[in-house]
Amino acid sequence: MFRRLLIDSQRLVLPSAIRMPATAVKVPDKPIASSPLPPPLQHHRLQHTDDRSVVKVLNMESDAGLMVDAFSQIGFRLNNGLSVVGPVALFPKTVLSWRVKSVADINEDSLSLFYLLEPKIDLLILGVGDKGTTVNTNIIHFMKQKGITLEILPTESACTTFNFLNQERRYVAAGLIPPYNLSNTIDDHLRAQRDAKTLFLARHDDD
Q1: pTM, two decimal places
Q2: Out of the domains of life, which is the source (predicted)?
Q3: What's the pLDDT band for 24 if we cut at 50, 70, 90?
Q4: When comparing pLDDT for 201 and 15, which is higher?
């Protein structure tokens, strides 16, 4: 099962059970708590004459670069409809298979794909799978010597961070490893109930 990520311009991850259309929607009167993401990021809030605020779903915009729509234990689904199995090297307009099996394979050689490119990327985001996964911190110093800032995050956080920075037109790349574990969320239960109801109605119509 893929866990879908819907990204809005106020830095929220929206559950797919309340998937929003690409058109603008009204923001609730009360503020919604969200986890801060690395600067520099800007809100994309549109102000109307009647003082309404609206947000845009970034990974549903037609002019957006590559973004991660969903991920699972076997791979990733992008906003262009492409599904990729296994670890990926993701760039603003390009996706490649990344030949690593786990975080143990992340080293100077496996990172050469990112620092040999021209023009050089500003930031490399590593999605290392599950929370609490440890990585050899020497790679941070190594990439700094190459003039590239390295951010190490759990895969889910790495996907959302890449989406935001790519939408900001930053020259950013991501090396993403599928997580080993996916805990069930309320969104997963709601989607399962919705799918079960749809299947029941389809069978009832056939009868």
Answers
A1: 0.64
A2: Eukaryota
A3: very low
A4: 201
